[in-house]
Design brief:
It is a single chain. The protein is mainly beta. It contains no helices and 16 strands. The strands form 3 sheets. A 6-stranded antiparallel β-sheet has the order 1-6-2-3-4-5, with no helix packed on it. The chain has a 5-stranded antiparallel β-sheet with strand order 9-8-7-10-11, with no helix packed on it. Strand 3 and strand 4 form a beta hairpin. About 25% of the residues are buried.
Length: about 190
Amino acid sequence: MKVNGNTIKPGNVIEHKNGLWVATKTSHVKPGKGGAFAQIELRNLKDGTKLNERFRSSESIEKVILEEIPHIFLYKENENLIFMDNNTFVQISVNINMIGDQSAFLQDGMEVIINIYNDKPVSVIMPDSCIEEVMEADAVIKGQTVSSSFKPAVLKNGIKVMVPGHIEVGTKIVVRPSDNTYIEKAKN
């Protein structure tokens, strides 16, 4: 199925350079001159090699149709993550490298989508957002404007994010796992 280059998300599998590649990171860039493009980090499903590619929105890319099966995260065992199929209750083991840095956001009972190709898991799609607790945050500096000041914070899972000045230690926030960005303060 042909799709625009700027619609690829982490976890999507594409056919590129005579192989299957999974998108691990994506970022959209609007340079001062020229058209916008998507900078996509790809990992080869066969040998695990990585590749950085730029796709313009006018380019069409062959997205591979996979079987998308919802799974629940159960636990981590060494370098493997154990998930359970919601419908059949069959457990599946996935190497932690398949998710990469986003694995820090996995929580017990979290629902993810596992893409299956030829009866093998090829990628894991994390939720668009998750709730994490702030464990460390710098103090607010007096005189900073509230609207534009962000400060570093460390989440319970050890990931560092930039948060607004009003966020304090112990606050639960909504974070986007694909790029470790703050979305909003979690509603209680």
